[in-house]
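FAQ

Q: What does a record look like?
A: Structure on top, sequence underneath. For example:
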């Protein structure tokens, strides 16, 4: 039996930056509902919305204060129901984001825990521990966004609490029965409202080594084995899977799924553990999103993604962009990105230095031609279909990402890929981001660059050479020419160092990442079906630099 998600293309909506219906400068559900036709016209299967739950918004919704409601800045449950109905009517399924590793420090459970005594049941839903005798934190673990994972409760309280990301995102202890029960209820609550699945945030830190021992010395790029990819975490996912399976058994016709967000750089074995048959339906393979524009590096990323999950009888799940990484147009615009040394294995460590956006855009087009030819499921991030670059020159005082503040500016953070979308060439309403009319429309929450109008959807829609037209063509060709493929049947052909050559049934896809044109012997006798070169195909078997051609 086949499932809708196996080959689905999912469009990620960063709700805060997609469209703003009430003119307050922040995206909302009604704004999204009003622009669903853009997503449907691309020809994707589903949307995934970043967290829309009540939140103090210190990590823009990834600090959840209530898993059963909608933040008033985004709307309310009635607006949510209208959105789901309209999306479904357009043939789009709806995925939510759920954050299991931590909640907000304003979640009622955490407030209760702070007010409760050390050793209380309220504290056992989190990781509260005494500090060491010398006054230092309970252990040496480091936070992902900088600093120690431990924050002292303060006052006379001897305890510290653990936050893997920031002090305002306390980690939940999933061995406490309340935590387990609450998330099972949350899954069912949103399934009852028509949701088709979840993108599950930050899965590796869920579950810790009992006793929380110090981490061993770690080389750069190594992860702390006591708080990443733990077997205790996988037990949680098996319980979640059984909630989903039970729900489907009692609701015939519903086909639900969950996808794991786990960065496991060059550790496809760890990634593949999430897609064991009793765990996730999908797990993102992120190595291509972090890869240099370099043949062997990209072939490795693809082979790892495709082959390791095929061992579990399933397909890869790949994205080139998301709300946590530098936008690909800019990432690939860096000169040094063609070196294998450009691999950092860290999505938060953006490329730096001079950029050439003409080159970056050409490469991003070629990368899209490769991405949309892959077997399995593909996730797109809002604005990549417009070819938006990263906004690099946001003034530091306007940056909102905790990554910037918590690393003392060492990492610029993710604001540059979250700037509100341009819908119209006209600057009115922040290029159509704020759709209300009138003088009291607020500035967008991050400023749009002066030239944002050239990327606007309405500038691109009738231009055959635009990024938007390319995405539409690629998505249409994916549907008409590629169809399904069984796990393990996609061949990666090692033809030439600079070429990524992929066979999908009758179609050969060739991506040239080298510095010049390459004559590709493997495609002899075939005709080009489409090219990512904005000036069209050149015919024959030559593939130009920074170009992907599909041959049939
Ligand atoms: C999300 C981030 C978020 C973090 C903490 C991630 O992996 O994608 O945007 O800041 O989890 O929840």
């Amino acid at each position: 039996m086949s499932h809708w998600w196996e080959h689905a293309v999912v469009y990620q909506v960063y709700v805060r930056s997609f469209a703003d219906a009430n003119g307050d400068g922040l995206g909302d559900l009604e704004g999204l509902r009003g622009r669903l036709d853009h997503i449907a016209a691309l020809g994707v299967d589903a949307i995934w919305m970043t967290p829309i739950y009540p939140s103090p918004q210190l990590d823009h919704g990834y600090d959840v204060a209530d898993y059963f409601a909608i933040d008033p800045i985004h709307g309310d449950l009635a607006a949510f129901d209208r959105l789901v109905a309209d999306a479904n009517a357009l043939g789009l399924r709806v995925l939510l984001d759920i954050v299991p590793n931590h909640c907000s420090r304003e979640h009622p459970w955490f407030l209760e825990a702070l007010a409760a005594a050390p050793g209380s049941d309220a504290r056992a839903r989190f990781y509260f521990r005494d500090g060491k005798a010398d006054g230092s934190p309970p252990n040496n673990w480091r936070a992902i966004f900088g600093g120690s994972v431990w924050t002292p409760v303060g006052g006379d309280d001897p305890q510290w609490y653990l936050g893997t990301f920031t002090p305002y995102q306390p980690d939940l202890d999933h061995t406490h029965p309340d935590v387990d029960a609450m998330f099972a209820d949350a899954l069912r609550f949103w399934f009852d409202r028509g949701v088709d699945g979840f993108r599950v945030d930050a899965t590796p830190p869920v579950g810790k080594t009992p006793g929380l021992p110090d981490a061993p010395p770690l080389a750069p790029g190594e992860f702390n084995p006591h708080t990443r990819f733990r077997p205790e975490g996988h037990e949680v996912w098996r319980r979640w899977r059984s909630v989903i399976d039970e729900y489907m058994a009692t609701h015939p016709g519903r086909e639900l799924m969950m996808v794991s967000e786990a960065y496991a750089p060059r550790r496809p074995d760890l990634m593949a553990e999430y897609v064991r048959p009793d765990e996730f339906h999908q797990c993102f393979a992120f190595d291509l999103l972090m890869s240099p524009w370099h043949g062997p590096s990209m072939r490795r990323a693809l082979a790892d993604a495709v082959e390791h999950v095929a061992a579990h009888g399933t397909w890869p799940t790949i994205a080139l962009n998301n709300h946590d990484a530098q936008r690909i147009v800019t990432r690939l615009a860096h000169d040094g990105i063609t070196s294998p040394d450009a691999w950092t294995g860290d999505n938060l460590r953006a490329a730096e230095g001079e950029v050439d956006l003409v080159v970056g855009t050409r490469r991003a087009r070629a990368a899209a031609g490769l991405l949309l030819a892959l077997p399995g499921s593909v996730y797109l991030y809002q604005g990549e279909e417009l070819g938006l670059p990263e906004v690099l020159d946001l003034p530091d005082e306007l940056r909102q990402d905790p990554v910037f503040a918590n690393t003392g500016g060492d990492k610029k953070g993710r604001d540059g890929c979250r700037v509100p979308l341009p819908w119209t060439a006209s600057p009115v309403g922040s290029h159509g981001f704020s759709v209300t009319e009138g003088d009291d429309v607020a500035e967008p929450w991050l400023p749009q660059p002066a030239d944002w109008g050239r990327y606007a959807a309405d500038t691109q829609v009738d231009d055959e050479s635009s990024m938007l037209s390319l995405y539409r063509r690629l998505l249409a060709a994916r549907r008409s020419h590629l169809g399904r493929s069984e796990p393990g049947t996609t061949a990666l052909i090692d033809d030439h160092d600079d070429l990524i050559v992929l066979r999908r049934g009758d179609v050969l896809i060739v991506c040239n990442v080298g510095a010049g044109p390459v004559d590709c012997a493997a495609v002899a006798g075939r005709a080009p079906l489409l090219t990512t070169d904005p000036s069209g195909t050149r015919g024959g078997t030559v593939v130009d630099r920074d170009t992907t051609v599909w041959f049939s």
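Q: Is there anything notable about this one?
A: The mean pLDDT is 96.
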